[in-house]
Amino acid sequence: MSRASQIPQTAAPARPELPGKLPDHLRAELIAFRRDLHMHPELGHHEFRTTAAIKARLEKAGLRPKVLNSGTGLICDVGTWDGVRPMLALRADIDALPIPDAKTHVPYRSTVPDRAHACGHDVHTAVVLGAGLVLAELDRQGALPRPVRLLFQPAEEVLPGGATEAIDSGVLDGVGKIIAVHCDPRVDAGRIGLRSGPITSACDRLEIALAGPGGHTARPHLTTDLVTAAARVATDLPAVLARRMDARSGMSVTWGRIEAGHACNVIPMHAELSGTVRCLDLNAWHEAPDQIHAAIDEIASLHRAKSEITYVRGVPPVVNDPVVTELLREAMGARCGAASVEDTDQSLGGEDFSWYLEHVPGAMARLGVRTPGDTAKRDLHRGDFDVDEAAIGVGVEFFTAAVLLDGRTPEARRAGPAS
Hints:
- By secondary structure, the chain is of the alpha/beta class.
- It has ten helices and 16 strands.
- An eight-stranded mixed β-sheet has the order 1-2-4-3-5-16-6-15, with helices on both faces.
- α1 (24-39) runs antiparallel to α3 (121-140) and α5 (226-244) runs antiparallel to α6 (282-302).
- It starts with 23 loop residues before the first helix and ends with a helix.
């Protein structure tokens, strides 16, 4: 069950207090905003209600958001860009997943059948919205060191991700670096996980259609046994790749669907497989399609099956820039103490935030959403996924600290806020 827990202070900040603390009334508003999004999840490219809600709240704060060309998602600049000094962008993804919400015990359970915010995008949205509102107030006070761009991106869950369309529409114009968070149910609320370099993997979609004349199961030698051919592709492809790709690349082919036949005594004429290709290494990701096509053709030919391969490029790995990662480490340390930052491993999950990093340096942090003391094993993309809502306030103050510290030298950042 989601709880806004009291996060114990693990260590005193090593420097004077930064401005940009989240007021209690705004903290409560953001929790309510997140719950409203959670009750009304929308899939990629259909986030019209979500976009309208974000836009209305930003306009209420005196800001001027702009809806993206795709019709969903938006950008909003806080402060006036001078056309010279690059902006820092804060990115959130706003779409939900096509799965049912299994949380029957909370009042903010999804009201839309087979739709749920099971990956935390509602939290990401509330965090960037809250940071924007706090930064807008600092701008009115003359305390915002540079303009900031808020980016609410649609369709992160739709390969190859809404980031590519957002970039094509110009969301990075004037942006010098970009940062984001992603909910992590393995990290306590009040903490973040950081990693310099690759933090996620590449993720592509693979679909294979096999064809042959089929026939009677009494005479498989006169047919193309597509059931066996499909089984061999499913088992042999990962094994072949393990000997053709560098083992350090972390290549993983995993099947989510295999279909063939309708009768027990008929060898079918068609079979289909679909799954994902994940890879930890960027160079291996570029090499993967050719290697996979060649291996499938060889396996299918061995069983006299014709193959049709659809390889859909998804996303490359998110590779965190070391300088931006260090900025995030210092920002979290300024808010919650150095002990609130933990190292995190590279995962095999994919994230289209990686496309932004093909153009500008940036970093993604893992935002802790587990209630401290909770020992249950939880994961993303499950219908029962939920968060400790105290993470929203932590994320807002983490982002505002990053904005306030950005652009200073490491020595100046350690010295504390500018007077």
